Amino acid sequence: MSTEQIAQVVDAKGLSCPMPIVKTAQAIKGLASGQLLEVLSTDPGSVKDFTAWAKSTGNPLVEQAEEGGVFRFVLRKK
Amino acid sequence: MDDEPLNLVLFSGTEDRLQAAAVMASGAAALGRRVNIFLQYWALDAFRKDRISASLGLAPEAGERGAALVAEAAKAGQQPWHATLRVAKELGELDIQACSLSMDVLKIEEEDLDPLVDGVEGVTAFYLNAGDGHIIFI
Fold this sequence. Notes:
The structure holds 2 protein chains of 2 kinds. A 4-stranded mixed sheet of chain A has the order 1-2-4-3, covered by helices on one side. Chain A has a single domain (6-76), classed as TusA-like domain (Translation Initiation Factor IF3, 2-Layer Sandwich). Chain A is α+β, with helices and mostly antiparallel strands. The two termini of chain A are 20 Å apart. Chain A is 29% helix and 35% strand. Chain B has helices spanning 15-30, 41-46, 63-75, 81-91, 100-105, 123-130, and strands spanning 6-10, 35-39, 94-99, 119-121, 135-137. In chain B, helix 5 (100-105) links the parallel strand 3 and strand 4 (119-121). The two termini of chain B are 21 Å apart.
């Protein structure tokens, strides 16, 4: 677990592709550079999607975990 | 490639194909890519104000089993194709244009169309805006 404070949490559990990524892209617009966004998803495509999205948009994926079928991602706004 | 828009030509007006198109469009918008959508024939018909929320059926290959699975996804909360497109539009640069020939053939006026549609254009304008980006026909 990061000791840094999470600025915002997006709960995308139960949403199907591409909504977890779409909601993430929406939420990150409202953050300041350097702030952290946490996203929770149950979409099995999420792991590859978040890795690709982070790489493509330049917002680094700083944490990634899975527990009980829920994927947790922490992204830092570039 | 990222500077070039994604260009979707929508022809089919069944819910499953429109949903597939909406997924392609919103995913690209989430990556910050510009998206152009060109509406022809039955896809254009589906964007009429009085049709957009109607039940538009599925592609023939869905069959009964496919229809049941799609209905199950909707019941589980999957949003309809037009809602996915509205979200994509809020998120990024998504331009939706009606094909002027299809407007003529289907006797559709601009005021008959849902506000998701930004305007009417011919195929030449579509190609010009498409630039060197991929063109996908659905």
